[in-house]
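Known limitations

Files may contain more than one protein. Parsers should not assume a single record per file. Below, a two-record file is shown to illustrate correct handling: read the sequence, read the C-alpha cell line, then continue until end of file.
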Amino acid sequence: MKKIFFLGFIILSVISCKAQSIQPIEKAIDYRRAGGIPDNIYLKDVNNLLTKYIGTWKGTYQDKNYTLYITKATSKYETITWDMLLIRYLITTSNGNVLENTQNLPDNNTYIIEGSYFGKDLAVYALDFTGKNAMCGNAGTIFIRTKNATNTLMSFGFEPNKTMISEDTCPGFKTAELTFPKDGLMLTKQ
C-alpha cells in the first residue's frame, strides 16, 4: 500500500510540474523586457483585449484601398501557448486591380501578420510583419490602436525594421517598395 501511495504521489508531482500556468496576455511585454517567456506559460486573452480588433477593416491611402481581415488565434511553440491576432489583407488600386491578397493563405504563412504584444498602457497592440522582399526592407512592426469609444476607427502604423541590405539580396542596394505606408492609415470597421 505504501508503494502505491508513493507511486501515486510521484505521478501527481510530475503532472503538476508540467501544468501550464495561465497568465493574461498583458504580461507579454513584461516577459519580453525580462528576456523571454518562461516555459509552461499560456498567455491567454482572459480580459478580452483582442476582441475589439476582430473583424473587417477598410481604409484608403494614396490611391490604394486596404482591407484588413483580423481574427483571433491561439499559437503554440514548444511549452508556450499564446492568444494573438492574425491579419490577412487585400490591397487594391483605386480602380480595383489587386496588388496583394493574403486572404486564402494558411495561418503559418510568413505573409500573415502575426500579433506579438500590447504596449504597457494596453492601448496599442504590436504585430510582426514580413512582406515580399523582406530582405530589402519590407518587414517590420505594425502598431494598431482603436481611436474611438465604439471601437469602429483604428489607426494602423508601420515601422520598417532597420535592415542592412546587401547587393546579393537587393540588386543595386535598392530597398523594396513597402506594402504598408510608413505614414500610417486610418481604418473603419465594417
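...continuing to the second record:
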Amino acid sequence: MRNPPPATTDAALEPVRAQLLRAARAEADALLAAADSDARAVLAEADGRAAAILAEARGLGEADAAAARDAARARSRRTARARELAARRECWEELRRQVVAGVEDLRHADSYPALRAQLTAHVRAVLGPDAEVVEAPHGGVTARTTHRRLDCGLTTLALRALERIGGEPEELWAP
C-alpha cells in the first residue's frame, strides 16, 4: 500500500495545479468566446437568409399581384369592349329595322305608283325591254331575262344603301 504524499508535496504542486486551472479556465473562456462568436455568425447568416427569403417572397407576391391585376384589367377591357360592340350591334340592327320599315311603308304613299314606274323603267333600261318585271314582296320590283336578274325591291334597295354607307352610322353613337 502506498502512503499518501506528504503535505509538503501538496504545497509544492499547488502552483502547478493553479497554473493548470488557470490554463483550463482560459481555454474554456476562449472556447466559450469562440462558441459565442460562432453562434452570432450563424444567427447573423440565418437573419440574412431569412431577410433574403422574405424579400424574394415579397417580390414574388408583388409579381403575382401585378399579374393578377393585369389579368383582371384585361378581362374588364374585353368585357367592356364586348358590351360596347353588342350595344353598337343593337343600334345598327335597330337602324336597319327602322330604315327597312320606313322604305316598305312607301308602298302606302300616294307617290308609290310613280316610284314603281321609275323602278320599272330602270330595270327595263338595264335588262332590256323584254325583261319580265314583277312586284317585289315588300314593294318595288324585280326583273329578269333568260340570263340576268335585277332586284329593285324596296327592302333590297334600303339594305344596299345601308351597306354603302359602311361605318358612317357609327358616328351617330360614337363618343
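Parsers that stop after the first record will miss the second one. For reference, the second record is described as follows. Helices lie at 7-104, 112-127, 154-165.
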